């Protein structure tokens, strides 16, 4: 999954109409470059590509005090569809970048949908952890490079932590924390 596409669609959706520089500025204010592999150039490339694919629509330009005006964009219905598809995928992912992008936009969905997606993600994380631990018996060379049992235990620990973290988010959701789309939020999901 392209995390940058989800981020660009999500920020554009939140700020629309908006321009590429505002999307970039918002993502940098979130420090997205520290928790994803997204760089400023990839943001502009995604805006251009999404526009060519009909996921973003240009609305003209916004005059600037310095330099040329900035092109304003908004999501098309196809862009809305892709945003929600990518968001659903991200919230069930065991990939940290994808899941992080999903968490960033979970407020675009109703609470029951976020809970269902994160329960699915937690189940997947636990299954990966169990599979990694089960593989240890197949690699008895703990004391020889590349020390597969240690690597498998390391990776299973990462997934145990992810499972625990997801449980914490689910607990907070169940307690009513977070303002999601089925509450007084201006953007609602499908």
Q: What does this entry look like structurally?
A:
Residues 8-83 form the Transcription regulator PadR N-terminal domain. Pfam families: PadR (PF03551). This is PadR family transcriptional regulator. It comes from Nocardia flavorosea. It is built from eight helices and three strands; from the N terminus they run H-E-H-H-H-E-E-H-H-H-H. It is mainly alpha-helical and 190 residues long. The protein is elongated, with a radius of gyration of 20 Å. It has helices at 3-15, 20-29, 32-35, 40-52, 77-91, 96-104, 111-135, 148-174, and strands at residues 18-19, 56-62, 70-75. It folds into two domains: 3-103, Winged helix-like DNA-binding domain superfamily/Winged helix DNA-binding domain (Arc Repressor Mutant, subunit A); 109-174. The protein has a three-stranded antiparallel β-sheet with strand order 1-3-2.
Topology readout:
Layout: H1 3-15, E1 18-19, H2 20-29, H3 32-35, H4 40-52, E2 56-62, E3 70-75, H5 77-91, H6 96-104, H7 111-135, H8 148-174
Q: State the order of secondary-structure elements, H for helix, E for strand.
A: HEHHHEEHHHH
Please tell me how large the radius of gyration is.
Answer: 20 Å
- Content-based structural category: mainly alpha
- Taking all residues together, what is the mean pLDDT? 91
Overall strand count: 3
Q: Under CATH, the topology of the largest domain is which?
A: Arc Repressor Mutant, subunit A
Proportion of strand residues: 5-15%
Low-confidence stretches: 185-190
Percent helix range: 55-70%
Number of domains: 2
Distance between the termini: 21 Å
Named CATH architecture of the largest domain: Orthogonal Bundle
**What would CATH call the homologous superfamily of the largest domain?**
Winged helix-like DNA-binding domain superfamily/Winged helix DNA-binding domain
Number of helices: 8
The CATH class of the largest domain turns out to be Mainly Alpha
Shape field: elongated
């Amino acid at each position: 999954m392209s995390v940058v596409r989800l981020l660009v669609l999500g920020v554009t959706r939140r700020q629309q109409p908006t321009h590429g520089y505002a999307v970039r500025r918002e993502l940098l204010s979130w420090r997205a470059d520290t928790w994803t592999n997204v760089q400023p150039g990839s943001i502009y490339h995604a805006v251009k590509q999404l526009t060519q694919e009909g996921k973003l629509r240009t609305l003209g330009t916004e005059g600037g005090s310095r330099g040329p005006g900035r092109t304003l964009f908004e999501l098309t219905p196809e862009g809305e569809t892709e945003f929600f598809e990518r968001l659903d995928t991200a919230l069930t992912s065991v990939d940290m970048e994808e899941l992080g992008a999903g968490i960033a936009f979970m407020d675009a969905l109703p609470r029951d949908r976020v809970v269902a997606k994160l329960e699915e993600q937690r189940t997947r994380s636990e299954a990966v952890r169990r599979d990694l631990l089960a593989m240890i018996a197949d690699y008895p060379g703990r004391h020889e490079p590349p020390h597969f049992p240690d690597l498998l235990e390391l990776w299973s620990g990462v997934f145990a932590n992810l499972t625990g973290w997801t449980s914490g988010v689910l607990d907070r959701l169940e307690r009513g924390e977070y303002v999601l789309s089925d509450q007084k939020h201006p953007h609602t999901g499908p």
